[in-house]
Amino acid sequence: MAIEIIATGRAIPPKRLTNDDLADRLDTSDEWIRSHTGIGARHMVDEGVVTSDLALEAARNALAMAAERMGVSGEALAQSLDVIVLGTTTPDYYGVPATACIVQNKLGARNAAAMDVTAACTGFIYGLETAAGLLTLNRSRKRALVIGAEVLSRLIDWNDRGTAVLFGDGAGAVLIERTEASGDGRVRRGLLRTVLEADGSGAESLMIRRGGGRYPYREGEAAESPRVEMDGRLVYNFAVKALTGTVEKLLAAEGLAIDDVARIIPHQANARIIQAAGKRLGIPESKFFLNIEEYANTSAASIPIALDELNRAGELKPGDLIMTIGFGGGLTYGGNLIIWQ
Length: 341
Ligand code: UT7
What we know:
Layout: E1 2-11, E2 16-18, H1 19-23, H2 30-37, E3 41-43, H3 51-70, H4 74-79, E4 83-87, H5 99-107, E5 113-117, H6 123-137, E6 143-151, H7 161-164, E7 169-179, E8 190-198, E9 206-208, E10 228-230, H8 232-254, E11 263-266, H9 271-281, H10 292-295, H11 302-312, E12 321-328, E13 332-339
Parallel strand pairs: 4-5, 4-6, 11-12
Antiparallel strand pairs: 1-7, 2-3, 6-7, 8-13, 9-10, 12-13
The structure holds oxa(dethia)-CoA.
């Protein structure tokens, strides 16, 4: 049995904001943002567009890719889905309903269970393992969509230059399937291994403080909008360690060397985090895929967006061993080792 990624999709809002656009309204500059983060631009949704809209578009694109190959319609494929797992920090609604349920309805995936995963920028890594686990546990389930989707532009304090310059909106999706490809146990394919970790002692270093039970709405009090708050330095140091440690753990668990890995697809939080981790590990920068310059940090969406970009560009070859690494609020971190289909 194997859990294979059989298709990918993404959704990037057309509206693009450069660093210079931000510098017009904030005390910042293109030079500072580029030199401290590697970011050159970010994409933002228009008024009225929410996370489920981007998730739906990414999901439809992934379904269309698979449907074409299978010679079926995207709608028929949607009806065959057993599970939808959606990682997001910016759900359409807090708590209820899950954004995955909104996507499930609009896709017409009436046979699919649907749930959100709250693991911030590690949401896709956690989501992939969750969906793979659900397909593995019950043989009546075969197909799942794993989506990472965010509209961070809604939860940013646009007056805080420490966070406003970092984030962008977008969504990515992968369609996974339980296959019998390695039924004889000799040929290994698909999701080989996942590492999932958390350190809740760092919970306050990256959080959306308002909007939950800790700071509830009270009659008569002025309600402050929920917004992302971050201790950038602390999260930076955590991120370098999380990235380095996860690469080492995944390799050790499978008895592999870094040369066995074709590509590392890290969460796109800051190019300097990736460079620092690469230096510590002695891994050439070219092994890491980076698209942060165009999209900034799209949290749970960054890894599936990158997977779709690489996949559609034909840069992931059958048999390639790829590694995804996520880290972020929670604090959470982890990674997947995948043999591309
Ligand atoms: O995806 C979830 C995980 N998140 C992350 O991984 C983010 C991790 N953290 C980071 O990437 C970096 O810490 C930041 C990019 C957020 C900040 O970079 P830094 O090199 O750690 O800068 P800093 O916070 O130490 O600030 C250095 C200086 C400060 O000025 P002073 O006190 O030295 O005068 C800041 O006020 O840079 C200033 N600064 C800015 N200047 C221009 C902070 N933000 C900006 C800005 N433009 N946007």
